[in-house]
Amino acid sequence: MLSETMKHLVAGGMAGAVSRTVVNPMERMKILFQIQGPEMAAYQGIWPTLKKMWQEEGVIGMMRGNGTNVIRIIPYSASQFAAYEYFKGLLMKEGASELDTPRRLISGALAGIVSVVCTYPLDMVKTRLAIQSASLHKNHSHLSNYASKPGSVQKLPGILPTIMSIYRNEGGVPGLYRGLVPTTLGVSPYVAISFWSYESLKSYIDNETPTKRLVCGALAGSIAQTITYPLDVLRRRFQVAGMANTGYKYNGTVDAIRTMVRSEGVRSLYKGLIPNYLKVAPAIGVSFVTYETCKDLLNAL
């Protein structure tokens, strides 16, 4: 028999793998929007960008970075759900059956921190692999090794070579954790608000069904992402700052915000928000449904 913690880990890992695979094209498009500056805005609009990705890189391009993402998201999601359940039990008042709002938010925030610290280098690698074959510049004739059609997609390095390259060329272990602070600042409130919103919305429905859970999860993810999105943009900018063709160089979180607003306007903090809604709503919905379904199945064993 599996322990409760192991059930949470297994169900959480499955939830992450299923949900992220479903929405990977939207995830990659969001990253492309986030990391391109005004001088290299080759990706404009949702449908034109999807079309460009398809024409230049085919189905492989649409799913670029998904293998890394799944490898990352399984321990990320597993540790997040398991940590949330652990902190819920730790903070639960004696005799209570539910957490109050402050304790629920604290549990979610701590779960977010745990999951980020455990898997951050893989998140950086996922971002790098997601954009390396993208033609970020409008005029990219000088980037001759970039793919121009589905059949000639550039062969990219794998997960381990990318990690080793960052380690050797970008400052060792600190290089693998570049952007951890804005990521933690963004993820911890995001996870806290997601769990709080989901459980709060569920309390208003009777006779839970997968469809109702899906709707609650989609709404919860949209609410949380709207509030914390600028920090997600900062995370991506820091993660690609060491890449030669991006031109980004920031001295800390405050400098990054100041530089982006000064050179690109306030809108730069919300780049990719609309496609992110198209990704987050189904991803979080599917994640919660998969988690609860797997947990129910494991409890029935």
Which architecture name does CATH use?
Alpha/alpha barrel
Q: What structural class do the secondary elements suggest? A: mainly alpha
Rounded to the nearest angstrom, the radius of gyration is 20 Å
Percent of residues in beta strands?
Answer: under 5%
Helix content estimate: over 70%
Major sheet: none
Distance between the termini: 8 Å
| Shape by Cα distribution | globular
Query: Which CATH first-tier class would you pick?
Result: Mainly Alpha
Instruction: Quote the CATH topology.
Output: Mitochondrial carrier fold
pLDDT averaged over residues = 83
Characterize the structure shown:
The protein contains eleven helices and no strands. The chain is an all-alpha fold and 301 residues long. The protein has a single domain, classed as Mitochondrial carrier domain (Mitochondrial carrier fold, Alpha/alpha barrel). α1 (4-22) packs antiparallel against α11, α2 packs antiparallel against α11 and α9 packs across α11. It is globular. Residues 139-154 have low confidence and may be disordered. One of its GO terms (molecular function) is metal ion binding. Solcar repeats lie at residues 3-90, 99-204, 208-297. It is found in: Mitochondrion inner membrane. It is a multi-pass membrane protein.
Keywords:
301 residues; mainly alpha; Mitochondrial carrier fold; 71% helix; 0% strand
Summarize the structure.
This protein is an all-alpha fold and 301 residues long. 71% of the residues lie in helices and 0% in strands. The protein has one domain (4-300): Alpha/alpha barrel (Mitochondrial carrier fold).
